[in-house]
Amino acid sequence: xxxxxxxRSVTPLQRGLFLLLLxxxxxxxLTTLIPDxxxxxxxxxxxxxxxxxxxxxxxxxxxxxxxxxxxxxxxFRNQGQNPVEIIELKPSCGCLAxxxxxxxxxxxxxxxxxxxxxxxxxxxGIREYLVNVRYQDPKPRxxxxxxxxxxxxxxxxxxxxxxxxxxxxxPDARYEVSISDFRxxxxxxxxxxxxxxxxxxxxxxxxxxxxxxxxxSQTRLSIQFTADQPPGQHRGLVSVFTSDPDYPVIQIPVVVxxxxxxxxxxxxxxxxxxxxxxxxxxxxxxxxxxxDIS
Length: 294
What we know:
Blueprint: H1 3-8, H2 12-33, E1 50-52, E2 56-63, E3 69-78, E4 84-91, E5 99-100, E6 104-105, E7 110-118, E8 125-136, E9 140-151, E10 156-159, E11 163-166, E12 175-181, E13 193-199, E14 203-212, E15 217-225, E16 234-242, E17 249-257, H3 262-271, E18 277-278, E19 287-288
Parallel strand pairs: 2-9, 11-17
Antiparallel strand pairs: 1-3, 3-7, 4-6, 4-8, 5-7, 8-9, 10-12, 11-18, 12-15, 13-16, 14-15, 16-17, 17-19
């Protein structure tokens, strides 16, 4: 019987058993030929340590108050394991003066970036200001903070809008109020003031001076209180009459003294420190039409 006849005489069952015997050898050969699988890729990302409450302060849906400086604040926390060092605060324009509450922030501590915007030379409309914060935690990091606001047309600014003197004023104390005119073409033309009136009788007001600049003109008022002021807290009003058709009368509310009995006010006025004037929220009428005066 030749070799061909021998192959033909092999039954199907014998062929199957033969293949089963070869499978382990084939599997071992294939395993040797295929390289070992690479270990799973692990990506480790270290997050920046400083986390801000907001990265965009957007108040452009409302018109900002007409002020020479508008300030925004960005609060943050160091959520890392190492101290953070703030290297640089880079503003997008010269009208910004950013500053940090601290240059070194320990883990878990909070802080803030204050962003004052000098608006005197800024045009009206929606404006966007950026400050780039560079810091180390200890890796070098960089984050951009954005401030967006709607600047109004420049008009008249009174500071303070209300004169508040808590306690008994000193006889020689003077409190100054400035009226800044930002309107176009008025930088070299200060307000023409016809007279200044004050009430009640112990409030005295006068013009302290006027000046002109490149962007605005300014009028300064001096306010004093006479020694015959009655005990207690009193409200008054300083009225500035002008020849300006837009602002014929400018009114500055005054609050002076302290609530309480006459005896308490008398005793406290002798021992209290000298009071001082300060800005307060808008109370009463600041700029009114002459027909509205009562």
